[in-house]
């Protein structure tokens, strides 16, 4: 069994480790349940300090679940945090409450930036006069439609499937463009000689 001091020492090391691993977005606070005070803070994000009131006046040791959360909190700057509390007490020993607070602000800002960047409302239709004869665009569209129909991916295609795709592209008329064979060979990671071999077989040459 840990003594009261050694238990706090261990929890302090755990708090420092978690805060270091997830820096700068995670704060770890250790509350002393017996004194209802903050015992330790690693990577202080909440502007509290050891000795501050922990806000546990109404809480009894028996009320503490081993793990509580995750739940949402609001920090002093108005930014949201997600928290998990871990109780260390047992029997008549109230022990400590280890609270891990993750600031989600950086993730929300990243999400908002991605949503703004990828917003379809800012897209305009492709100008027909520019893309009517874009053979690469047409090949890309057909190729990925063919792949999606088979519930696979470009990188997962085996050699047999690549040959089947070349045949399908030929039937679609994809090889009418001057440099289509070289382009398709590059996209499928095949040699040009392999593409030309498939085309000869298709044409019965």
UniProtKB/TrEMBL annotation:
Pfam families: HTH_22, PAS_6. Residues 139-200 form the Transcriptional regulator DauR-like HTH domain. Residues 8-112 form the YheO-like domain. It comes from the Bacteria. PANTHER family: TRANSCRIPTIONAL REGULATOR DAUR. This is Transcriptional regulator. It comes from Pantoea alhagi.
């Amino acid at each position: 069994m840990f003594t009261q001091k050694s238990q706090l020492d261990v929890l302090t090391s755990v708090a420092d480790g978690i805060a270091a691993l997830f820096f700068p977005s995670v704060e770890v606070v250790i509350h002393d349940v017996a004194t209802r005070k903050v015992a330790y803070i690693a990577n202080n994000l909440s502007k509290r300090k050891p000795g501050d009131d922990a806000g546990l006046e109404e809480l009894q040791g028996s009320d503490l679940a081993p793990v509580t959360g995750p739940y949402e909190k609001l920090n002093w700057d108005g930014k949201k945090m997600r928290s998990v509390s871990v109780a260390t007490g047992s029997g008549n020993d109230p022990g400590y409450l280890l609270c891990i607070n993750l600031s989600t602000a950086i993730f929300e800002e990243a999400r908002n930036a991605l949503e703004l960047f990828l917003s379809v409302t800012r897209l305009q239709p492709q100008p027909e006069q520019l893309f009517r004869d874009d053979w690469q665009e047409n090949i890309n569209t057909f190729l990925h439609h063919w792949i999606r129909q088979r519930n696979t991916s470009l990188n997962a295609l085996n050699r047999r499937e690549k040959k089947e795709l070349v045949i399908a592209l030929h039937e679609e008329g994809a090889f009418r463009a001057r440099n289509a064979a070289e382009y398709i060979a590059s996209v499928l990671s095949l040699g040009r000689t392999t593409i030309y071999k498939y085309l000869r077989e298709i044409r019965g040459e």
